[in-house]
Specification:
With 317 residues, this protein is mainly beta. 5% of the residues lie in helices and 55% in strands. The strands form 7 sheets. It has a 5-stranded mixed sheet with strand order 7-6-5-4-28, with no helix packed on it. Strands 3-2-1-29 form a 4-stranded antiparallel sheet, with no helix packed on it. The model is unreliable at 1-21 (pLDDT under 50).
Length: 317
């Protein structure tokens, strides 16, 4: 009983170790070594390497943690990985240039951005087949879904815009002009705002989803790639700067830049919001940032050319 009371007290004052607060894994796509590294974020070490092929880039882990879906642009394929078993259980020919990938909250539908076709492919994971295509803007890259699964947002890089897709009708409902060459896109937990990393204009566009319009811009570092949200802040990977730019979500004012590895790309916040995980393309590593103290606490070596573009974290409990 005494142990339980002490544990409860520690939790109430914020002394719970990170390992207990966030039992998660990172599924990091390594484009140059054609594989996927699974990193245990509690022990901060790789625990598995899974061969993928086709220069893997995008990745999305299902909400229940059962599967990871990985895009391979060179193979024109989507690979299905059993996350717990650490093995490939399917490969779907999607054609074109698959890049960004998103999974419906219930896991019943997978969406893949086709860079070359200005379209999003709709995939039924039960039959492992493409069942529909949705027209979006030129060079769709990042995809994100609202928490209720009703809307899919596509960052259309060469159209300088974001497409808003109704997932029930599978039709584009709106087109929102943003900064130059939007690439990564992230939606907040409430489904109210979206954030695009604009590679060409070195800023982040803030979108009001209900109103389907851009409501603000935040200057960041050179060639921003993707955005993560935690602790009331936005965290943006600056590829050319080797940094993560931090800004306040309420005021949209810059807060700090944190030096990470070389050419950071994929970025995600742990479920407890206490850590930010960053994939560093040139350093072949993953940086771990304390989201409260705003400093790098650890670095883990992974494969060659890590991108981790998408929702690449998996809860393990």
């Amino acid at each position: 009983m005494r142990v339980m009371v002490l544990a409860a007290l520690a939790a109430s004052i914020g002394l719970v170790p990170v390992e207990e607060a966030s039992a998660e894994e990172a599924f990091v796509t390594n484009q140059l070594s054609d594989n996927l590294t699974v990193v245990d974020l509690a022990k901060l070490r790789p625990v598995a390497t899974i061969a993928i092929g086709g220069k893997p880039a995008g990745v999305a882990v299902t909400a229940d943690g059962r599967f990871a879906y990985v895009t391979s642009p060179d193979a024109k394929a989507l690979t299905v990985v059993d996350a717990a078993a650490r093995k490939v259980v399917g490969r779907i020919d999607v054609g074109g240039g698959p890049l960004g990938v998103a999974v419906a909250p219930d896991g019943g539908t997978v969406y893949v951005a086709d860079w070359y076709a200005a379209a999003v492919r709709v995939i039924d994971p039960r039959t492992q087949s493409v069942v529909a295509s949705i027209v979006v803007g030129a060079s769709p890259s990042g995809l994100a879904m609202t928490p209720d699964g009703r809307l899919l947002l596509s960052a259309d890089r060469d159209a300088d815009s974001v497409s808003v897709v109704d997932t029930a009708t599978r039709e584009r409902r709106a087109t929102i002009k943003v900064g130059t060459r939007p690439f990564g896109i992230t939606i907040d937990a409430e489904g109210r705002r979206a954030f695009t990393a604009n590679v060409g204009s070195n800023d982040v566009s803030v979108i009001d989803i209900a109103e389907a319009r851009e409501i603000g811009r935040v200057p960041v570092g050179m060639r921003p790639y993707a955005v993560a949200l935690a602790q009331g802040r936005g965290f943006v990977t600056d590829q050319y700067g080797g940094t993560v730019s931090v800004f306040d979500l309420a005021t949209l004012k810059p807060v700090k830049r944190i030096t990470v590895g070389d050419y950071p790309e994929g970025i995600a916040a742990t479920a407890d919001g206490r850590r930010i995980i960053v994939a560093n393309w040139e350093s072949n590593s993953v940086s771990v940032i304390d989201a409260i103290e705003l400093k790098v606490t650890d670095e883990v070596k992974v494969g060659d050319g890590p991108r981790a573009f998408g929702a690449f974290l998996r809860r393990t409990e």
